[in-house]
Amino acid sequence: MAHGTLQMAWINKGDNEEEQYHVMYGIDGAERTMKARAVHGRSVLTAILTSDFHLVTERVNRALEDLESLGTCSVTGLNIPDSDLKRLDLA
Predict the structure, then answer these.
(1) Alpha carbon distance 48, 89 (integer Å)
(2) pLDDT digits (tens, 9 = 90+) for 74-85
(3) Pairing mode of beta strands 36-40, 72-80
(4) Using CA atoms in the order 39, 43, 10, 58, what is the torsion angle rounded to 10 degrees?
(5) Distance between CA atoms of 3 and 78, rounded to whole angstroms?
(6) Other CB atoms within 10 Å distance of the CB of residue 87
(7) How far is residue 59's CA from residue 54's CA, in Å, rounded to a whole number?
(8) Which long-range CB contacts under 8 A does 30-34 form with residues at least 24 apart?
(9) Helical H runs in 2-80?
(10) What local confidence, expressed as pLDDT, does residue 34 receive?
(11) Nearest to 80 by CA among 23, 21, 31
């Protein structure tokens, strides 16, 4: 189980095309470069947050609001199994 922070950035914010995001998971205390995964479309990002990371609706909505207003967001205090990070191409 990897305790850490999920970081997201909207990389084409302001463009008139499908949203593109980078999603990264940083393991607390690890001194390594995080691997970024490209995600295309808000619905795909929402599905990953709810189905794969099992975030509650309130945390998903807050993350999406921050992405909309700031272009980046972080979700802290997560415990994600190493096998899930590998499956999601984040390890």
Answers:
(1) 12
(2) 999 999 998 999
(3) unpaired
(4) -120
(5) 6
(6) 11
(7) 10
(8) 30/4, 34/7
(9) 42-47, 57-70
(10) 80
(11) 23
Helices of type H across 1-91: 42-47, 57-70, 82-87
Tell me the two tokens of residue 9.
């950035």
Picking from 12, 57, 10, 7, the residue whose alpha carbon sits closest to that of residue 33 is 7
pLDDT digits (tens, 9 = 90+) for 6-61: 999 999 988 889 999 999 999 888 777 688 899 999 999 999 999 999 999 999 99
pLDDT of residue 32: 73
pLDDT at res. 78: 93
